[in-house]
Amino acid sequence: MGARSVVLLLCALSVTGCITSDRRPVDENRAVLDYINLAMGYLQEGYSERAIKPLKRALEIEPGSASAYGMLGMAYQHMGEDRLAERAFARALDINPDASDVRNNFGAFLYARERHREAYRQFELAAQDVSYPRRSRTFENMGIVALRLGDTLEAKENFIRALRLNSNLPKANLELAAIYQQEGNLLKSWQYYQVFEGVAEHSPRSLLMGIDLATANGARSEAQRYLSRLERLYPGSMELKQYRSRVGYE
């Protein structure tokens, strides 16, 4: 069903403020947040190595900061330092087992290293937090991991739960469309697909799916539109070759 990725929440810690002086601020709590925010800014701009120093400063002030360790795990992950990243994520969760953002990001880290069952467990624990504001994304991540584990039923249930919380999640809508297509429920598949199209950019996979679903549901002009986009945007794609092979294109 094509490549899939889980969501790593770089801005999940919701910290604000900035560092305006090299002197240690009087308000140590504010200083810790400022250092974490500075590190997050570096990560967002792609300067992962620069994020380490402010996080170390934050941990000098507050050695028990789960947020700082969670961000440190992300910084090491971006640097390719997997051992250090895992150690930082684990330390953050030792300090605060209820840090749902850290669990989600640790799950994304594990998923990227194909440790799928461990990733699923981290997402599962994060999803148990009913107050977690990004819970829908975590259920979406659980669905993606379940697909990789070959459990379509579990994936379907997680995608449905994700969309109950946020009906505009692109991956959940597209994957549910694919699942219902496989089950032969082409009308329901088409409905989820149309929601996906309204909230996300197309890929070769989604355009080929659109051709098939539009054709099956009698939307011939839509099918032609998807085909035209597939030919224009992805002329060398396997999906276009697959479509042409099916229709006997010479």
Walk me through the structure:
The chain has a domain of 113 residues: Alpha Horseshoe (Serine Threonine Protein Phosphatase 5, Tetratricopeptide repeat), CATH 1.25.40.10. It has 13 helices and no strands. It is an all-alpha fold and 250 residues long. About 6% of the residues have low confidence.
- The biggest beta sheet, please? none
Which sequence of SSEs, written as H and E, runs from N to C? HHHHHHHHHHHHH
Counted beta strands: 0
- Percent helix among the residues? 55-70%
Supply the key terms.
250 residues; mainly alpha; Serine Threonine Protein Phosphatase 5, Tetratricopeptide repeat; 13 helices; elongated
Q: Brief description of this entry?
A:
With 250 residues, this protein is an all-alpha fold. The chain contains 13 helices and no strands.
Write the layout of secondary structure elements.
Layout: H1 28-45, H2 52-61, H3 66-79, H4 82-95, H5 100-112, H6 116-127, H7 135-148, H8 152-165, H9 170-183, H10 186-199, H11 204-216, H12 220-233, H13 238-246
